[in-house]
Design a protein that fits this description.
213 residues, globular, alpha/beta
Length: 213
């Protein structure tokens, strides 16, 4: 889904593209699958090679469709139903392959909803998937990129979990639409950060005030 938006006090038209949220028309092979074998039919898993190809091509088409001042990437990450962290741990074929030796342990951990060192392995791999996909998008498009991120290791909603520092060099700015402002403000900010429906705070270089279909 591609939307247009502007910043407060600015006339430039910017684009916002939702990447991994889909309706049930998406191929079942691309759906995230939790530890109980239940698929999330509203999303596609970014670890799947075909999903990465689709996302990169969508970004390329979106970037070429208009003279955008920037293109914001939304939902570049792993989403769990209702933001549930353990349900967000995906067990599609691509994720299982990526987990390697901890795959079986993770399945038990996700079902029993307990803390275990295997979660750290999973999270590092999950972030590497996001970073790699973002890097490919950066190489494929010729417009300034913005990233909607929660900058939180275990975030499982419609934003990336990459930090501002991790996105350095791949995007020109980041946007945030929720979370603890004081926590976000304490993180290194190597680029402008914009708020979406967020309270006024000195950390923000500006606010997105209008989104339209």
């Amino acid at each position: 889904m591609l939307r247009r938006f502007r910043l407060r006090g600015e006339d430039a038209v910017r684009g916002s593209l939702v990447l991994t949220r889909r309706d049930s028309a998406a191929s079942p092979d691309l759906w995230p699958v939790n530890a109980y074998g239940v698929a999330d039919t509203t999303a596609i898993c970014p670890s799947q090679p075909l999903v990465q190809e689709l996302v990169i091509e969508e970004c390329r088409r979106a970037a070429a469709s208009y003279s955008w001042a920037s293109l914001e990437l939304v939902a570049l990450g792993f989403a769990g139903p209702r933001g549930d962290f353990f349900e967000s741990i995906c067990f599609c074929s691509a994720c299982r392959y990526g987990y390697g030796a901890v795959d079986g342990i993770l399945e038990t951990v996700a079902r029993e909803r307990v803390e275990h060192p295997s979660l750290n392995t999973m999270l590092l791999w999950r972030r590497s998937v996001q970073y790699g996909l973002l890097q490919q998008i950066r190489e494929a498009v010729g417009v300034p990129l913005w990233l909607r991120t929660a900058a939180s290791l275990r975030y499982t909603g419609d934003m990336s979990s990459l930090t501002f520092e991790e996105a350095r060099g791949l995007v020109d700015a980041c946007t945030v639409s929720g979370g603890d402002v004081e926590r976000l403000a304490a993180l290194p900010r190597p680029m402008p950060i914009y708020g979406v429906g967020m309270p006024e705070h000195e950390m923000f270089a500006g606010h997105i005030v209008a989104e339209a279909e």
